[in-house]
């Protein structure tokens, strides 16, 4: 079956061997290479579909923008441009021609489309919900934190920062349990933000995960560290960062440690450092955090078992038993008999 993505089509289902929709006459073989199989989800800005690339028979994801606001279009195109520059297994892969405009039949307004790698798995928000919000353990937390920092390092090294790290924007691959950072529509060039402050930075706010400087349109790369720290508070406690059991709205403090008794003070300290109110008090780059994690891992390793010294071999002592007089007489008699026998044989010869 081929679905028509014309939002005005009354019957989008079509056979999989046609080129144009039987209902609205819009193209269903997109870019002469993609057929839309099914809808995966819908958000405020767009719809995602599973598609099949007919030349390779490979499943991919098609993101379709349904909001024609100029800013939404700018962010959508930006996601395509950024993803084409990032090459890491923890980032969805796109081809250079992944972005295209689709014109439904008799329409002068294009629909903006982006084709990307299909990541099979769950995002971490759904993952936690399916676990009934049961917190993850320290070993998993450290491994995941390292993985995400390595992914984030790839982004920052290209002079981008993400600006919307949160559980729902992190996927867990089903095939190999690898983490994948998704939704790059909010990324920003470091130079645009830090070295050119005219006009500020577009506000991207996810309650509980967005730091104060980003709320005030002054996001920086260290804003990603704050959001990453808050993400791990959620994973380690099973509670949203603004949960009333942890967050004090009067003092704007997050008292989360008592809700994560399974982790060490060292790891808790690191996460609090990442979530400092002032971005200048946070780590300067991903390598600083990775170095701290290496120190934590070393400190958490159990001491090697003490080797017991091998016992020294003891010399074997032989004890000779005393020979009795009777044994002496018997031995003498046997000797005389043997000698007599030998002499007798000699003379007989």
Automatic annotation (TrEMBL):
Transmembrane segments: none annotated. This is non-specific serine/threonine protein kinase. It catalyses: L-threonyl-[protein] + ATP = O-phospho-L-threonyl-[protein] + ADP + H(+); L-seryl-[protein] + ATP = O-phospho-L-seryl-[protein] + ADP + H(+). Its EC number is 2.7.11.1. GO terms for molecular function: ATP binding; protein serine/threonine kinase activity. Keywords: ATP-binding, Kinase, Nucleotide-binding, Serine/threonine-protein kinase, Transferase. Residues 34-300 form the Protein kinase domain.
């Amino acid at each position: 079956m081929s679905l028509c993505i014309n939002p005005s089509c009354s019957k989008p289902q079509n056979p999989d061997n046609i080129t144009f929709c039987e209902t609205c006459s819009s193209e269903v073989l997109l870019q002469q290479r993609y057929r839309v199989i099914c809808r995966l989800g819908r958000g405020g800005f767009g719809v995602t579909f599973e598609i099949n690339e007919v030349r390779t028979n490979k499943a991919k994801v098609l993101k379709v923008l349904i909001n024609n606001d100029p800013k939404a279009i700018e962010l959508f195109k930006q996601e395509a441009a950024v993803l084409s520059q990032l090459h890491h297994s923890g980032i969805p892969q796109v081809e250079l021609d992944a972005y295209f405009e689709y014109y439904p039949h008799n329409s002068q307004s294009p629909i903006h489309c982006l084709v990307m790698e299909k990541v099979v798995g769950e995002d971490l928000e759904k993952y936690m919900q399916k676990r009934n919000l049961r917190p993850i353990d320290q070993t998993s937390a450290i491994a995941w934190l390292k993985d995400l920092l390595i992914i984030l390092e790839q982004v920052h090294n290209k002079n981008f920062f993400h600006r919307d790290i949160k559980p729902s924007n992190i996927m867990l691959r089903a095939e190999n349990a690898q983490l994948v950072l998704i939704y790059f529509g909010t990324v920003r060039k470091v130079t645009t933000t830090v070295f050119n402050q005219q006009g500020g930075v577009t506000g991207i706010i996810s309650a509980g995960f967005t730091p104060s400087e980003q709320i005030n349109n002054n996001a920086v790369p260290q804003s990603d560290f704050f959001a990453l720290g808050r993400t791990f508070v959620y994973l380690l406690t099973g509670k949203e960062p603004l949960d009333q059991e942890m967050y004090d709205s009067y003092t704007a403090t997050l008292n989360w440690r008592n809700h994560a008794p399974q982790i060490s003070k060292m790891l808790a300290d690191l996460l609090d450092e990442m979530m400092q109110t002032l971005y200048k008090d946070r780590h300067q780059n991903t390598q600083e955090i990775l170095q701290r994690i290496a120190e934590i891992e070393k400190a958490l390793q159990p001491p090697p078992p003490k080797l017991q010294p091998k016992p020294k071999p003891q010399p074997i002592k032989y004890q000779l038993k005393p020979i009795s007089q009777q044994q002496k007489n018997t031995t003498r008699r046997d000797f005389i008999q043997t000698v007599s026998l030998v002499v007798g044989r000699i003379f007989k010869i």
